[in-house]
Design brief:
Low-confidence stretches: none
Distance between the termini: 17 Å
Oligomer: single chain
Mean pLDDT: 92
Shape: elongated
Strand content: under 5%
Largest sheet: none
Structural class: mainly alpha
Helix content: over 70%
Length: 59
């Protein structure tokens, strides 16, 4: 499941970055803000997975 979460986090980061760039280029502040939010959500999800990996006991 961790790999799925990491993939989802990376997808959110990329999608958010694209929306942010497109919104900025088009002058659409709403889309730009939505992109920043989505990118941040992906960053947080990725950070959560890194913490889980660091805390997970070694087998």
């Amino acid at each position: 499941m961790a790999a799925d979460e990491k993939t989802q986090a990376k997808g959110e980061q990329v999608k958010g970055k694209v929306k942010k760039v497109v919104g900025g280029a088009a002058g659409n502040e709403s889309l730009k803000a939505e992109g920043r939010t989505e990118e941040s959500k992906g960053d947080l999800r990725g950070a959560k997975e890194k913490v889980k990996d660091a805390v997970k006991p070694k087998e």
